Structure formats: C-alpha cells, structure tokens
Amino acid sequence: MEFLSEFPALGRKDLASLKQGIDESFRSFSRAYGPEIEAFFNPLLKFLIWFEKLLLGTPWPIVIIVIAALTWLGARSVKVTIGSVIAFLIIGFLGMWEDTMATLAIVSVCTVLCIAIGIPIGILMARSDRTQAIITPILDVMQTIPVFVYLLPVVMLLGIGKVPGLLAVCIYAAPPIVRLTNLGIRLVDRDVMEAAESFGASSREKLFGVQIPLALPNIFAGVNQTIMMALSMVVIASMIGVKGLGGPVLRSISNQYLALGLMNGLAIVALAIIFDRVSQSYGKRLQAYRETGHG
Amino acid sequence: MVKHEIQPLDDSIDEPKVSIQKLYKIFGDTPEAMLDRVRGGMGKPELMDQTGHALGLNNINLDIPARKIQVIMGLSGSGKSTLIRHLNRLIEPTDGEIWVDGEDVMKMDAKELRDLRRFKMSMVFQKFGLLPHRTVLENAMYGLEIQGVSTKEAQQRAVKWLDRVGLAGFEEQYPSQLSGGQQQRVGLARALATDAEILLMDEAFSALDPLIRTDMQSILLELQEELHKTIIFITHDLDEALNIGDNIAILRDGEIIQSGDPQDIIMNPADDYITDFIRDINRAKVVRLRSIVKKGATGAGETLRGGMSLEEALPKLHKSVDGSCPVVDKKGNPLGAVTLDGLIDALKAPETEADDEVRYS
Ligand SMILES: Nc1ncnc2c1ncn2[C@@H]1O[C@H](COP(=O)(O)OP(=O)(O)O)[C@@H](O)[C@H]1O
Ligand SMILES: [Mg+2]
C-alpha cells in the first residue's frame, strides 16, 4: 500500500548527489572550456560592440535619416516613414536615445544571426523528413522551455554580459525563422518543381531559382516573428547584462518607478510596431506577383 | 467483323526516335517483388486487391517515330502521365528499357540525364508548371538559362518564341495575370525555346476550354508543319487525338491495347473497350478515303486524295456517273477507288459484342 500512496522517488541523499554530480561536471566543463567558448564568440562580441558604437557615434540626425530611408525602402509608405521618424524624435526627446540604440543594435545583430543560422537549417529540414523529425522537437523545446532555465547554463558558461544575452535572445527568437523556411519550401507547388526538373535543373538551381524565391514570403514572415520575439526578450536579457531599454524597465520594477517603466516600455512597443509594419509590407511586396489582373 | 485494309498515304519508313521496351512500373513498398506476378498475367485490380501495389505500367512496348506526333490516349488513371514521365526519367521504371536516339536512358548517370532533359527533351504540363515569381519572358527563358545560354541570347530567343505562339506584348506580365490559354502558350514557348527535338506534352490542352483547346491544337499543328519535332502528346480526348495524332496508342490499366495509324483504330478497333471509345465520333469527318478504298478498282468520277474525309468526298461521289471515284496517295500513285455504297457503309459505327447480344436475344 505504501508503494502506491507514496511515489517511489529516489532517496533524498541520492537525489542530492545526482544533482550535485551534474552541477559539478557542468562546472568543470565550463572551467575547462570556458575560455575557448568565449574566444569562439569573441568575433560576435566585437561585431555587436562595433555596431552599437556605430549607432551611438553617428550624429542623431543622420541616424534618423538612415532609419527613415530604410523604413521607406521597406514599407514604401509615407505614413509609416513619418510615424517612425516622429517616434524616434520623441524617444530622443525623452532621454532614451542611447538605450534605444543599444536595443536596436542587439535586436539587429540577433536577427542577422538568426537569419544566417536559421535559413540554412530550415532548408536542410525541408530536404529531408529525417532532419525535420530531429529538429522539430528541438525547436519545440527552445520555444517552450522557461527562459530562466537556459539562461542559467549560458551564464555559468559565459558569465554576465552581452554575448550570453545575445545567445539567450537568439535561442528564443530563432525557431520561427527555421520553421517558416522549412514550411515555405515544402509548400512550393510540386508541379512547378517538376517543371524545373524536367528542364534539367540541378538541385542547386532548383533551390535558388525556384524553392527559395517561392518560399520567400513565408521566410519573411519568419523574420518578422523573429524580430518581434527578440524585442520581447530585451527586458529579460537586461537581467544578464545586456544594455538597452530593458535595463530601465527592470529598475523601475524593483523601485516602483512607474513613469520610467512606462516610457521605456512604450519605446520598446514603438520599435516593435515600426519593425513589424516595415517587414510586413516588405513581405507583402515580395508576393505582388500573386495578384491576378487582366490579360 | 470485316477487317478494313488501310492504305498508307506515303511509303516513307518511320525510324524510331524513342523506343520503349518491356517497360513495367509498379507503385508500392516492394515493386520488384511484384514483377513476377505481373509478368505471370496478374492484372491491375487483382494486384491492388491482393498486394496493395498499384500497377502503373504493364509491359509497354512502343516505337515512337521521329518527326511525327505520337498520341497516347486513355482514360484517367490508365497510366498516361506515368508513361510520359519515364521518357525523361522523372519517374524511374520498375523494369524495362527506354532508348532515345539509340542511347539507353536507363544507363544514363545524373549528368547525362540532366543533359538529356536540357537539350533533347522538353515538356509541357497540364497545369502549366510556370514559375509564378517570374515574368512571361523570364519563364520562356527558363530552359535556356538552365542550358547556360547567355542572358542576352536567351532573351532574344524567348521573345521570338513568345511571338510565335501569339504572346508578343505580354513579356513583362506575370503568369497569374494571364488566362489559362495564354499561360499554356507560355508553357509551349518555354518548351520550344530550348530547341529540343522531342516535345513531351502531358494533357497539355486538357485544362483549357474547348474553343481554346482547338485553337491550341491548330497552333501546335502549324508549328509542327515547320519544326518537325518528335512530339509525344498525351490526351484523354479522342477528338483531340484524331485531330493531331500521326499515330495513336491506347492505354488501359497500364497496358497498350492498340497502337498505330488513327484510321486503323477507327476502322478496326481491337476490342470492345476501344469500340466504345470511338462510338460517338463524327465518322464523316474523321474517316479518310484511304481507309475505305477498294484496291485495283477504278471509277468514272473526279480523282480524289486518300487523305480526304468522307464528308468532303460525298458531293464528288454524288456527281460521278457510276457513283465511284479513283483515289491516289500523296505522290499521285493510284490506290484504287471508293464507291458511294462503301462510303455509306463506313459511316456506321462498329458494333461491340454486347450490341450483338442485345440484338439477337
Ligand atoms: N506515386 C504514385 N503512387 C502510387 N500510385 C500511383 C502513383 N502515381 C500514379 N499511381 C497510379 O498509377 C496509375 C496511373 O496513374 P497516372 O499515370 O497518373 O494516370 P493518368 O495520367 O492516365 O490519369 C493510377 O492508378 C494511379 O493511382
Ligand atoms: Mg495524367
């Protein structure tokens, strides 16, 4: 009876030593390989710092002009362009310029990183059901595991700082782009692929000439989601030493600074809206050819 | 049933461009293991019932002559798409041989196969298979691009072919902006632009409205007058087959049940299945004098050509004092003569055994 009412758990001592063993081996692993791992991520850190300095070192009117130009190129909408210029002016006026640039830097670098890693993985997934079966559960874990659980080993390995923050953001933000690249390629019309094949296209020519161009709208939806998720991580990332708009939000929570929290929170929202509008209308333009007209 | 003797219009011998020999295709988990049963005579329904394997093609033997239009006809599911996709190995056979210009397609490695598809065969699809993100011009250029032709030359050649199929001025449009007929013209231009000698057309016109379909058939025949490609044309439509086919092979359950001269199929259907198939055609339009000519006979009327339809011949026979006209082949050599009675006889559709049973029971 006792067996049923009491779960046959490991004894307290065994359990403690098990956990201790895991902790101990991870610690010795990070002690042994910590420097190598840090060196591995060093170029990334350098790039992030360089980009942040670039944004902060450039006179603010030029930054705003560049932002306006990029917004225009992406969205082709006067409304969105003027809206984002006004948003940045208000952000600067309210003293959040530097934090905003820092956040912009980490979100941009993270997005580039996610694209650079995520799209090739998505392509591999689309090419083999086996790879898909292996990677899908990993993506599920990446998206559902509580952030703090993987923040811990990252911090143990790399300490507090920009790189662990960047990695944490990327782990959280990368899955959509992988998933949507995979999906986009798998959704490419079989008849079109067959036609390409019948003309003797090699698999390279099929990938770059047919599959990726036709998957682009989906891939772009993935980029959009990745950016949004990266932005939503900035507050948590600030807990492990990432500078930016997240820092003041965190401080305002512990000190009950309502206005500070609100202002910085709204600045994050403003960034999110701008990114979203721009990338969405760009994505829509990518599939302009789908519109039917008259012959 | 009387066997009609069909006189050839010219005596040139057709050299085979493509030769299919003992070709089998079985779909399922262990197709090779099923080969013996199929060779032993097991049919498509039994194979499906007993083993869950689909019999796609069953011992196909077909020589396809160069510079002619070979039609392959059959109802939906008879294996037409499967067969045509074997010619460029979009589908791998379970067993058998495919020869193109004396080369064994089955022995080709990946590169040779790509070259075959790039330079020797091009394909037109029922659902067009156009690249939706490319303009009409870029679509027509696709095969040339894959061949490695320079952009400039590819553009020129693609523009020329778009013009030939009547799409001049549409170069910068996207496929989604065109009607079905126009889209298939793009498909045709894309296939012709590569200068491949062999054109594979899988129900290329089946998705189009009837009027547009006959339009496209005329375009194809016009082009063929000049290009003399080897065309393998799939259709489920007998009228289309008779309109464009130099030769017709009829497929049922993955087997060729009759193959040859269209006139032979109309006049001497091999079995009841085909008899049913040809029952509703307008015989006055499709039966030619060469199919009903009496060898050695002669007539008092105007001299007629063997390729003339009964419909056209009727008034001439009517005018002839003895109700009979001499017939000649393409070169003017006498084939014999036709009579009014013979013509009227040929207008009757052949009967199946089932018909006989109804009549005599
Ligand atoms: N990939 C496949 N897997 C299983 N069965 C198939 C496959 N492709 C075709 N078949 C079967 O082969 C037969 C012939 O198909 P198909 O060549 O498409 O016919 P058609 O083009 O004449 O309509 C059909 O019975 C079909 O069910
Ligand atoms: Mg078909």
Automatic annotation (TrEMBL), chain A:
<dbReference type="GO" id="GO:0015871">
    <property type="term" value="P:choline transport"/>
</dbReference>
<feature type="transmembrane region" description="Helical">
    <location>
        <begin position="80"/>
        <end position="97"/>
    </location>
</feature>
<keyword id="KW-0472">Membrane</keyword>
<keyword id="KW-0813">Transport</keyword>
<dbReference type="GO" id="GO:0031460">
    <property type="term" value="P:glycine betaine transport"/>
</dbReference>
<dbReference type="InterPro" id="IPR000515">
    <property type="entry name" value="MetI-like"/>
</dbReference>
<dbReference type="GO" id="GO:0005275">
    <property type="term" value="F:amine transmembrane transporter activity"/>
</dbReference>
<feature type="transmembrane region" description="Helical">
    <location>
        <begin position="257"/>
        <end position="275"/>
    </location>
</feature>
<feature type="transmembrane region" description="Helical">
    <location>
        <begin position="103"/>
        <end position="126"/>
    </location>
</feature>
<keyword id="KW-0812">Transmembrane</keyword>
<feature type="domain" description="ABC transmembrane type-1">
    <location>
        <begin position="100"/>
        <end position="279"/>
    </location>
</feature>
<dbReference type="InterPro" id="IPR035906">
    <property type="entry name" value="MetI-like_sf"/>
</dbReference>
<dbReference type="Pfam" id="PF00528">
    <property type="entry name" value="BPD_transp_1"/>
</dbReference>
<dbReference type="GO" id="GO:0015226">
    <property type="term" value="F:carnitine transmembrane transporter activity"/>
</dbReference>
<feature type="transmembrane region" description="Helical">
    <location>
        <begin position="147"/>
        <end position="174"/>
    </location>
</feature>
<feature type="transmembrane region" description="Helical">
    <location>
        <begin position="226"/>
        <end position="245"/>
    </location>
</feature>
<comment type="similarity">
    <text>Belongs to the binding-protein-dependent transport system permease family.</text>
</comment>
<keyword id="KW-1133">Transmembrane helix</keyword>
<dbReference type="GO" id="GO:0043190">
    <property type="term" value="C:ATP-binding cassette (ABC) transporter complex"/>
</dbReference>
<protein>
    <submittedName>
        <fullName>Glycine betaine/proline transport system permease protein</fullName>
    </submittedName>
</protein>
<feature type="transmembrane region" description="Helical">
    <location>
        <begin position="54"/>
        <end position="73"/>
    </location>
</feature>
<keyword id="KW-1003">Cell membrane</keyword>
Automatic annotation (TrEMBL), chain B:
<dbReference type="Pfam" id="PF00571">
    <property type="entry name" value="CBS"/>
</dbReference>
<dbReference type="InterPro" id="IPR027417">
    <property type="entry name" value="P-loop_NTPase"/>
</dbReference>
<keyword id="KW-0547">Nucleotide-binding</keyword>
<dbReference type="InterPro" id="IPR051921">
    <property type="entry name" value="ABC_osmolyte_uptake_ATP-bind"/>
</dbReference>
<keyword id="KW-0029">Amino-acid transport</keyword>
<protein>
    <recommendedName>
        <fullName>Quaternary amine transport ATP-binding protein</fullName>
        <ecNumber>7.6.2.9</ecNumber>
    </recommendedName>
</protein>
<keyword id="KW-0813">Transport</keyword>
<feature type="domain" description="CBS">
    <location>
        <begin position="297"/>
        <end position="353"/>
    </location>
</feature>
<dbReference type="GO" id="GO:0005524">
    <property type="term" value="F:ATP binding"/>
</dbReference>
<comment type="subunit">
    <text>The complex is probably composed of two ATP-binding proteins, two transmembrane proteins and a solute-binding protein.</text>
</comment>
<comment type="similarity">
    <text>Belongs to the ABC transporter superfamily.</text>
</comment>
<dbReference type="InterPro" id="IPR003593">
    <property type="entry name" value="AAA+_ATPase"/>
</dbReference>
<dbReference type="GO" id="GO:0005886">
    <property type="term" value="C:plasma membrane"/>
</dbReference>
<keyword id="KW-0129">CBS domain</keyword>
<dbReference type="InterPro" id="IPR046342">
    <property type="entry name" value="CBS_dom_sf"/>
</dbReference>
<dbReference type="GO" id="GO:0006970">
    <property type="term" value="P:response to osmotic stress"/>
</dbReference>
<comment type="subunit">
    <text>The complex is probably composed of two ATP-binding proteins (TmoW), two transmembrane proteins (TmoV) and a solute-binding protein (TmoX).</text>
</comment>
<dbReference type="InterPro" id="IPR003439">
    <property type="entry name" value="ABC_transporter-like_ATP-bd"/>
</dbReference>
<dbReference type="Pfam" id="PF00005">
    <property type="entry name" value="ABC_tran"/>
</dbReference>
<feature type="domain" description="ABC transporter">
    <location>
        <begin position="42"/>
        <end position="278"/>
    </location>
</feature>
<dbReference type="GO" id="GO:0031460">
    <property type="term" value="P:glycine betaine transport"/>
</dbReference>
<keyword id="KW-1003">Cell membrane</keyword>
